């Protein structure tokens, strides 16, 4: 029987050590080789054992250390003392008539997060969450309404990818081709774990950097961080208004990082070369859909050669706003196009399953907050129990 203190020499009781286990899903391939290599070395195990573990992790097949069946049983038991490999439990899966599938995941501590799979032709895009809830408080967003619980670890972000990929394969979908960090949370407010997860998805799971998009409402230090990275991860900026005054109504962060500061950071990002910027512009009826605003938006986008996505507002139960009518969106788009800006109207996906950011979790939290005997009276609770 191996001495449990041999690995780190800390003299920590094995039970306490279990709480301090390293999550294998949080490690870049280089770190995994280091950490697991050290562990195997301390047990005089051959180097190929490290490869075996790495294949189980990045091949994505093992959902736990116990499932690494070509690693001897005793060695798995010891590995399990120092490392963990946890995937979230699926709390609910909702499928839209348009093929979009939304997972509500329950994390180890009971927190609920969401990810969405969006099939488009031969592409399959996975939308990941980076936080449980969000502290940014954007006025049009269900996640903002539900508040912030905690940051996700890099492993919890990567685990959404692994579990979604496995689910998609079992459902006969193509492989996940694109990843967007547009689920719950502001990714650049959880910078270190998000940056680590980008490395892991890119280097460990082989998802090309240009196929991964990080979305932000404008956290300038994080944008500058991404600009410094050699990989060409894409950036989507939730702009939603072309001037500070209107933007402040929609995005409280505008007070901390006003538009001129954000645009300066985006110029730095653009100057870093080969890094595409997309502006996300949610079209809310009579709030930000005046064609005159399109002219201002065009000036901003043209200066950065940015692509503009116009997104019809997806109503939430928490705000009395409506999506802009189709003609209004068409007129807005026409102005952008006439100004030479590349733009598209993003087709709403998964509306029948609350696929917009945070809606499913918000409904789940609403349901959980209601006494069980009253839930039958509520349509939301009914939908959750279906
Ligand atoms: S839009 Fe994004 S940043 Fe804003 S509250 Fe929602 S999740 Fe947070």
How does this model look, in words?
By secondary structure, this protein is α/β, with parallel strands linked by helices. The protein folds into two domains: 14-84, DNA polymerase, domain 1 (Orthogonal Bundle), CATH 1.10.150; 89-368, Aldolase class I (TIM Barrel, Alpha-Beta Barrel). The chain is 40% helix and 18% strand. A ten-stranded mixed sheet has the order 3-4-5-6-9-10-11-12-13-14. Strands 1-2 form a two-stranded parallel sheet. Strands 7-8 form a two-stranded antiparallel ribbon. Helix 2 packs across helix 3, helix 6 packs across helix 7 and helix 11 crosses helix 12. The longest helix is centred in the middle third of the chain and has 17 residues, at 154-170. The model is unreliable at 1-6 and 365-386 (pLDDT under 50). Iron/sulfur cluster binds next to helix 5.
């Amino acid at each position: 029987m191996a001495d449990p203190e041999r690995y780190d020499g800390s003299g920590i009781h094995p039970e306490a050590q279990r709480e301090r286990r390293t999550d294998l899903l949080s490690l870049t391939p280089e770190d995994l080789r280091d950490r697991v290599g050290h562990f195997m070395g301390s047990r005089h195990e051959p180097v190929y054992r490290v490869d075996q573990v790495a294949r189980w992790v990045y091949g994505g097949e093992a959902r736990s250390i116990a499932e690494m069946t070509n690693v001897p049983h005793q060695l798995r038991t010891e590995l399990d003392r120092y490392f963990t490999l946890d995937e979230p439990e699926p709390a609910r899966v909702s499928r839209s008539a348009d093929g979009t599938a939304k997972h509500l995941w329950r994390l180890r501590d009971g927190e609920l997060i969401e990810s969405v799979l969006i099939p488009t032709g031969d592409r399959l895009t996975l939308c990941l969450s980076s936080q449980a809830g969000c502290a940014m408080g954007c006025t049009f967003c269900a996640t903002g309404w539900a508040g912030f619980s905690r940051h996700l670890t890099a492993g919890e972000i990567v685990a959404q990818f692994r579990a979604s990929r496995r689910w998609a394969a079992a459902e006969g979908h193509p492989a996940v081709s694109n990843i967007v960090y547009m689920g719950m949370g502001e990714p650049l407010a959880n910078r270190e774990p998000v940056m680590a997860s980008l490395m892991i998805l890119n280097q460990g799971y082989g998802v090309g950097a240009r196929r991964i998009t990080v979305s932000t409402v404008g956290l300038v230090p994080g944008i500058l961080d991404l600009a410094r990275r050699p990989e060409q991860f894409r950036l989507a900026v939730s702009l939603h208004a072309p001037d500070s005054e209107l933007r402040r109504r929609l995005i409280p962060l505008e007070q901390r990082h006003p538009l001129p500061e954000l645009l300066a950071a985006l110029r730095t990002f653009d100057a870093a070369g080969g890094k595409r910027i997309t502006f996300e512009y949610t079209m809310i009826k009579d709030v930000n859909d005046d064609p005159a605003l399109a002219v201002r938006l065009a000036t901003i986008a043209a200066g950065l050669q940015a692509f503009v996505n116009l997104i019809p507002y997806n109503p939430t139960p928490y705000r009395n706003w409506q999506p802009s009518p189709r003609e209004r969106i068409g007129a807005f788009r026409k102005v952008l196009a006439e100004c030479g800006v590349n733009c598209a109207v993003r087709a709403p996906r998964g509306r029948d399953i609350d696929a917009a950011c945070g809606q499913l979790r918000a409904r789940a939290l609403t349901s959980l907050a209601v006494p069980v005997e009253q839930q039958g009276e509520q349509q939301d609770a009914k939908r959750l129990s279906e």
